[in-house]
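Notes from the 1:1 (GR / supervisor)

We went over the backlog. Supervisor wanted to see one worked example end to end before approving the batch request, so GR pasted a single chain during the call. The sequence is below; no edits were made to it. Supervisor asked that the structure be written out right there so they could see what the output format looks like.
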Amino acid sequence: MCKFLTNGVIKTLTLAGVLSVSAALPAAHAAEQPVRIGAIYIMSGSAASYGKFAEQGIQLAMDEINGAGGVMERQLALTLEDGQGKAAVAIQAARKLVYQDKVDVLMGLDSSGVAQGLVPVLPELGKPFIITHAATPDVTGKLCNAFTYRVSVNVNQNMGGAAAIAAKSGAKKWTTIGPDYAFGHQSWEFFGNYLKEKNPDVELSASPSFPRFGAEDFTPFINSVMESKPDGVLISLWGGDLVNFVRQANDRGFFKQGMTVLMSVGAATEVLTALGEQMPEGVWLGTRYWYDSHDTDANKKFVSAYKQKYQSPPSYNAEGAYVAIYAIKQAIEKAGSTDGKAVAKALSGMVLDTPTGKLTLRAGDNQALIGPTWGLTAAMNTADKVRSLTEVENFDGEKVTPPVDPACKL
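Structure output shown during the call:
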């Protein structure tokens, strides 16, 4: 009897052990699988440096998170696609990432035009997408949906800051040079509206200049602006276009005309590094993030780690991508799952600790309540090899973010 019972107990324990191991296999297998992140950035052409900086920000965050044990005991893994600045290419890339590469979360986008094309497709893909660069207000406005989030400054927020700078300058007659798509046109529209609110007497050009994105010769537009003799000019060119514009404008004496010049994203370190001393002193530069203007422990840690890893100061695109990875981590942990709908829901209303401070993803439209930074170019920062900024102002996101667009129905 005892022997039988003993054998019975042994057999029962053995069977229980087998069942236990069998039950644990799926969980163990899942734990071994990485959390897959799909990113879409411009990795070729004149704006490729933006994609490079974003990739570096992603990699730094992933190294930190993976080194600390990952997310829910799973490592993060990245699949990066070149969106080429084309909506059709980005849509195809997003579908590949979801259906073929089986990613859990999506992020990226450098172009507003691309964002306008891709965002309406996201609900059918069923994965949250965090925008870290593209600035059109539409994607958290009339095109908003439950899967689209943005952790970076949009045109509306940036132009609120730009208008405040412009109003203080005293310049009355304004024009613009911007890319001939959503970003350029919306920048001019919002800038003009906000500036008129602050100073109804300003004059806005009826014939602003909108060269095509990727144009190589900006001379006709430079000449046209100089001939019209404005008091101020808003320049919303970016990336390689802005680099080429500044070089050609220097040759034409554009910056010696006494105009107040505002470059809406001129303080991108991608641009400043490429231009060096060719970026003139005494012009106003805007940016979504300036590495030397946030006295927070998180920013000090980020900047130090980034410089150590990449030997250059971080750009706003690197910071935005870095923040997005930590947002993904926090959302997955909150959801307790990588299910697309659950992670998207967890992002809604989330408050993040970021290099710029506390950041809220507003539940009403999934837009981060974050303000731009503006500063006046000064002497070269010889250590970082970029123009330094003076009279720096970090605008309060709560103050420069308008209410939720009534057209946004989440």
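Supervisor's comment: Confidence is low (pLDDT under 50) at residues 1-29.
Batch request approved.
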